[in-house]
Amino acid sequence: MDNTISIKKCPSCGNKGKDNYCSYCGHPFDVKRITFRGLIYDVIHLFTKFERGFGYTLKQLFKAPGTMQRTYILGDRKKHQSPFSMFFICATVSAFLRYLILNYILIHFQTMNPAEVILNKDYLVFLYIFLVPLYAFISYLLFYKSQYNYTEQMVMILYTLSIIFLASPFLFLLLFIWPHLDVMYVEFTIYAVYFTITFINFFISYKRWKVILFSILTLALAFVINQAAEDLVIKMLYD
Fold this sequence. Notes:
mainly alpha, 2 domains
């Protein structure tokens, strides 16, 4: 009879132990892979608890994009805001700030389509909720040889879009200086850099040149889809 007790390493803090939970931080030693069912639970969890990990997650997305998502998927989850709630909070804040900025531009400069203002106020968050699975599918197709399943790549996209959402209102402030500026081109340039860094740190098993190419392709396809979806909603509102 084998009475050997295996020593386990905590995926969150690195402490070693023999039980089911880490004696230092309380994190379980064994973590399950992220699944679609788990993501649905995350959606429900969004409406029941605002976690203390929001600030920490935000800081890590700034300091270590891609690495933060990778370590979360590998098991370091206790300190982080869960992915869908992070996305929903950031998207909601972004939509509200963008609405205030665009509405001001509309009133004082008359260079803004009123339907675009309404889009940001009432429909933007829900539009992206429908688009995120598609963006994740694009990433999954391009990185299908990686160790990450579709749902895990969706988690990576949710976190990545969270920080991009928070950055977008600051880019819209440029309209106060240049009311006729097409912010989309500025967004694409800045987001391409962030996407590339994120993907390089996330897909570490891929060659760097391939990750750079696929990350820019993912963002480009997402931009085209996003623009088409927004134009469709605006057309429906305007008509």
